[in-house]
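Observation: inputs received (chain + adenosine-5'-triphosphate).
Thought: call the complex predictor directly.
Action: predict_structure
Action Input:
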Amino acid sequence: MATVEVRHLQKHFDGGRVRAIDEIDLATGEGEYLVLLGPSGCGKTTLLRTIAGLEEPTAGDVLIGGRVVTGLPPRARRIAMVFQSYALYPHKTVLANIVFPLRAARVAVGEREERARKAAEMLDIGHLLDRKPRQLSGGERQRVALARALVREPAVFLLDEPLSNLDAKLRASARDELKRFQQRVGVTTMYVTHDQSEAMGLGERIAVMSAGRVRQIGAPVEVYDDPADTFVATFIGSPPMNLVPRGEVLVGFRPEHLLPEENVTGDRITVALDVQRMEYLSGDRHVYGTVQLGDHPTRVIARLPATVDTPIAVGEQHDFAIAVDRLRFFDERTGQRTDPLRVGS
Ligand code: ATP
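Observation:
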């Protein structure tokens, strides 16, 4: 096992016109499952490829296990990378596919098969070793690709959207499986996704990225409850955090914390919500409307759980409230939090 760290990392393309990684500092814990989450084009893949040694950084360093590896070729880094489009050899059996990297690495013949079988057992594909890839389901093929990466006994796993080829149902089970697999082998893993529910479900910590930078790194509950800026506040959460201008400040609150007044006790602020639309989603009521805290009305969303049965009518105004300790404040100009984050991350 080993930690991964990047220091002042930059990666530019096209003579500096594209700053895929603008500047990133990041360190995993030993055996940690760190998810990189961000919109398309924010630099996630470039970061993984630079850590793997497939790209030379423009500036900064990559450390694995505390040792600077910048400039070393990929094979010297004890890293296994699984991409979104993993290619298995279609004419080889599952066993031959898994053994392949060991042949390339000149591992002794007797040892190859033993290691391949062990990796296959770990991923519950031990019974499929004689099949060809086309005789497998998408999820099973995925596991063959993981076994092929695992067999080299990497110190670090880099996974780039490895579930994106699977359908929704299979994705959920493959996600569970990946998590259990990582807990079992305990290998430090960096996992790239643009899907926030995948990130929230899988990550011990999530690094939220945008435009070649890490905006915040923290446990799922930290980035959700205590976003460091308006980007994180609105990228995470569905529907996203409400942001209502008041003078120089944006007042933020999650839809589930905006409730009919009588449901909020203790210190609270009340707002009049002009209700424009309602939706029922998995038992919750999503109420769309406008509130006014400053100069002009702002659109907001309230999410009412089934336990709140206050009658709400479209076209009417209702008194809603938000508990004061649920409010988050951001600088309107920079988007940065202005009240202190309650967690150290
Ligand atoms: P996605 O989720 O769509 O895969 P990503 O977050 O992984 O996106 P990257 O693939 O790392 O994003 O790309 C980051 C930026 O760098 C993008 O603007 C992309 O167009 C640019 N980029 C990546 N590789 C190159 C390259 N080889 N040459 C020029 N620009 C590149």
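Thought: report the result.
Final Answer: The chain has a mean pLDDT of 91. Residues 13-14, 18, 20, 38, 40-46, 194 surround adenosine-5'-triphosphate (CB under 6 Å).
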